[in-house]
Amino acid sequence: MLASEMFDLRDTLGQQGITFCYSGYMTEGILLGIGNAIKTQMQLGDADAKVTKGVFAVFVEQVQNVIRYSAEKIGNEDSSELRYGILTVGSKDDVPFVACGNMIETKDAERLRDSLTHIKGLDRDGLKALWKETLRGETPEGSKGAGVGFIDIARNARHGIDFDFRKVDDAYVFFTLKALL
Amino acid sequence: MENIKIPAEERSLEVDFDFAANTFSLSGRSFPENVPEFFGPLVDKLKEHFATQKGARIVFSFSLVYFNSPSAKYVLGLFDLLERTAEAGNEVKILWACEKDDDMQEMGEDMAEDLESATFELRFLN
Hints:
The structure holds two protein chains of two kinds.
Chain A: H1 2-15, E1 18-26, H2 28-44, H3 49-69, E2 73-75, E3 81-92, E4 95-105, H4 106-120, H5 124-136, H6 149-156, E5 161-167, E6 172-180
Antiparallel strand pairs in A: 1-3, 2-3, 3-4, 4-6, 5-6
Helix pairs in contact in A: 2-3, 3-6, 5-6
Chain B: E1 4-6, E2 14-18, E3 23-30, H1 35-50, E4 57-67, H2 69-87, E5 91-98, H3 103-112, E6 119-124
Parallel strand pairs in B: 3-4, 4-5, 5-6
Antiparallel strand pairs in B: 1-2, 2-3
Helix pairs in contact in B: 1-2
């Protein structure tokens, strides 16, 4: 029974092309450890060096988004806090992907959707222009990073990005972003 | 100004700034936990130093393997600072070393697009 449960979970992941999955609280240590594991796994699998770097870069941005912004957290900002997310890495029809999901507050969903819709609609030159503009601009309100992570993900995602939102309750929405490399 | 030498770590760059010789280099990977804490003091020193330079020959070398988006903000900021320093009457050369066709080549070329007074040179490691 126990083995069947775990095998079924593994099978479900396998059917979606997922070769790596982490669901839990994310830390900088986890980022480093898993990041190295993914790089090694891809190198051993003879993946193209540029694609491997792209997957690693998207992975870092995705995990750092969870560490900074996931609305599902324990602890508090003053001491230490941990934020929850789920991340998968895999390949479907020979297109590698990195997908990440986490809770966000409902009030942030619309701004995020607008921003990602805009990014998704841009071509490579448009993305480059927005990337530079954002790097040079003031940090957006409510942002603790350069606010440029999503643009960076889109620039690495040669086969595009997909995103989706699912209502959990009045206060929270589950947000997912998938990058196809 | 006192020279700055910081060895590379798994997540942060090797820094080698020689202020008297006006040669500066950053190399390796950059995705430290706290990006402003790493770059902030370095940028402050550079700003302070470059403001005193006139007619100087300045060479800034980048040999980057990977940097995350918060680090990119500082790298582009350095390009802008070097451009301003060149405009102020200095001979500024930016050397960008990377492997050919690596994503870092595109990154360097994108960053260099807006340079007018500073010169940019790509060097391939392979």
